[in-house]
Every structure is written in C-alpha cells, then in structure tokens.
Amino acid sequence: MSVIVFRKAAYGNLLVLALLRSEKWDGFWQPVTGGVLRGEDIEDAVLREVREETGVPGPLRLFDINYEYSFSVPDKYQGLYDDNTGIITEHAFGYETDVEDIALSDEHTEYRWLTPPEALELFYENPEYQESVRRVIRYPDDDSIKMTR
Questions:
Q1: Residues 6+ apart with CB under 8 A from 44
Q2: Average model confidence (pLDDT) for the chain?
Q3: Domain ranges of the chain
C-alpha cells in the first residue's frame, strides 16, 4: 500500500510528507509504502507502516482514496515478497496527522513537508505517487470519502 500522509499548516494549507529512501533501497523520494502481513487487514497495515516509518502514532483521519496501481519488482528485490509474481499492486490511502516532527526508520534518511506542487515535482519520476497526492488534496475535507477508521 502507499499512504499520502499530510497535515494542515497555517491558514489551512496542506503539507504532504515525502521520505527519502536510504541508498540501500535506491535513494528515491516516496510517500509511506509497505506491505500487508499475513493475517493483517489493510487498514491495520497502513497504521503499522506509518508508525514504523514515521513514528506518527495514529491518524486524525484515515481514508481510502480509491486508487490502485501495479509495478514490476526490480530483479535485485525478487524473493523479498510472498507472492513471487514479480508484480506488486499498491492500494493508496490518505492519512491526516497533526504531527510535525517525524521519527524516521532506517529505511529513510530524510523527510520533507511539502506543498502539493512541491510534492508533485519531487515525485516527478512516479506518476502513481503524483496521482495519489492529487486525489488526497482534491478532497481533504470531503465527508463522502470512505473513512476506514
């Protein structure tokens, strides 16, 4: 799954969290991402991955942005995933927080809170991350979005 973590800054402006993967994991910018453990439901996986990668204890709002995408696993990472198909499908979520200071895991070396245009620019190599950001910022207060928690 991928999770667009965001917070409201001064005057209601949204800021989107971007994490820099460590060089061990190819050193690129991304949102929170992760997998669902055997026996875990996807909402619990979202909460766990956000907590593990950022230290954020829980969302103000967690919602399904109704967006899924797939990508091929690079050869050097084959065997790390249970399905062994070589294809990963990620379901995207929005996750609102009021936490500003992030406690990074060893998967990441840096974080930035970005305006939506800055996030779209930073994620230029990944149109799926860009579309996830667009969907989150388009409906930040829309009560019709399916809340998962």
A1: none
A2: 87
A3: 2-138
Q: In this predicted structure, what is the pLDDT of residue 82?
A: 56
Instruction: Give the DSSP H or E segment for 73.
Output: none
Report the pLDDT value the prediction gives residue 104, as an integer from 0 to 100.
Answer: 96
Q: In the chain, where does DSSP find H-type helix?
A: 42-54, 116-122, 127-138
Q: Which residues pair with 77 in a beta bridge?
A: none
Residue 23 corresponds to which amino acid?
E
- What is the reported pLDDT for 23? 85
Q: How far is Cα of residue 35 from the mean position of the Cα atoms in its chain? A: 11
34 vs 11, which has greater pLDDT? 34
More confident residue, 128 or 10: 128
CA-based radius of gyration for the chain:
15
Pick among 3.50.50.60, 3.40.50.300, 3.90.79.10, 1.10.10.10: CATH of 2-138: 3.90.79.10
